[in-house]
């Protein structure tokens, strides 16, 4: 499943070529018009704080009407395309930790160039950007398959998201990008010893449920996801 590339920091115009070569994945998004959430402190003075200081003067709740939202100035398609919709409809409605968590998903795919000017000013790299624990000091655990713990274990929250998909890819010895492609699905089916057609239907789901200890009813619900997350925490 292709990743969306539509983010451009507010300091440059969106690149047409980047907008046309990938599509936004079909991720569930929260309803618009959510309640504004006050930003929380997540590991102050990290490289992400420096990026935000450049992008938005460090205002994690900013919405100026320019089409970019929050401290790191996400466009709406990029926010939802990289899993931000699990937290809020728009980035400025999410907490600082949630914005950084989503930014790390962008960083994995697009690299620091997603923030073309401010990444340079802040010294952002993949290494230092991904090394930040967004949830440090918040008392939170993250959501939708987030890590949320210092040990790196998945949160067993029963909701599929980029980090649960990424853990599945690691388990399947596949490249990790936080989405599940047809090739990944075939690898899952091969591991489960069912027909590898790339279509995750009842037979595949039942085989997975038996493996992870969920009720084998052939329906992938939150109970199956929780069992999968707990299983991945044990085997990874």
UniProtKB/TrEMBL annotation:
Top-level taxonomic group: Bacteria
Keywords for this entry? Answer: Hydrolase, Signal
Give start-end of the signal peptide: 1-44
Please provide an example of a Pfam family that matches this protein in its UniProt record: Transglycosylas
Residues forming the Resuscitation-promoting factor core lysozyme-like domain are 44-118
Query: Which InterPro entries does UniProt cross-reference here?
Result: Lysozyme-like_dom_sf, PGBD-like_sf, RPF
Q: Does the keyword Ligase apply?
A: no
- Protein family membership: Belongs to the transglycosylase family. Rpf subfamily.
Protein name, entry field: Resuscitation-promoting factor core lysozyme-like domain-containing protein
Please report the organism this UniProt entry assigns to the protein.
Answer: Nostocoides veronense
* Lineage, uppermost ranks: Bacteria, Bacillati, Actinomycetota, Actinomycetes, Micrococcales
């Amino acid at each position: 499943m292709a990743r969306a590339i539509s983010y451009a920091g507010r300091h440059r115009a969106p690149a047409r070529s980047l907008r046309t070569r990938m599509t936004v994945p079909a991720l569930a998004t929260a309803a618009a018009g959510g309640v504004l959430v006050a930003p929380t402190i997540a590991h102050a003075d990290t490289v992400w704080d420096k990026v935000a200081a450049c992008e938005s003067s460090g205002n994690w709740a900013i919405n100026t009407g320019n089409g970019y939202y929050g401290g790191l100035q996400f466009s709406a398609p990029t926010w939802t395309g990289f899993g931000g919709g699990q937290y809020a409809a728009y980035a400025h409605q999410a907490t600082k930790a949630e914005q950084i968590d989503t930014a790390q998903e962008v960083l994995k795919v697009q690299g620091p160039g997603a923030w073309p000017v401010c990444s340079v000013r802040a010294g952002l790299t993949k290494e230092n950007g991904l090394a930040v624990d967004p949830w440090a000091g918040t008392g939170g655990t993250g959501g939708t398959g987030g890590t949320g713990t210092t040990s790196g274990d998945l949160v067993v929250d029963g909701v599929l998201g980029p980090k649960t998909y990424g853990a599945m890819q690691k388990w399947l010895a596949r490249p990790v990008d936080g989405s599940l492609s047809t090739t990944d699905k075939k690898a899952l089916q091969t591991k489960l010893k069912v027909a590898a057609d790339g279509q995750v239907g009842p037979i595949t789901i039942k085989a997975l449920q038996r493996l992870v200890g969920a009720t084998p009813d052939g329906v992938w619900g939150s109970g199956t996801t929780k069992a999968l997350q707990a299983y991945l925490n044990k085997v990874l």
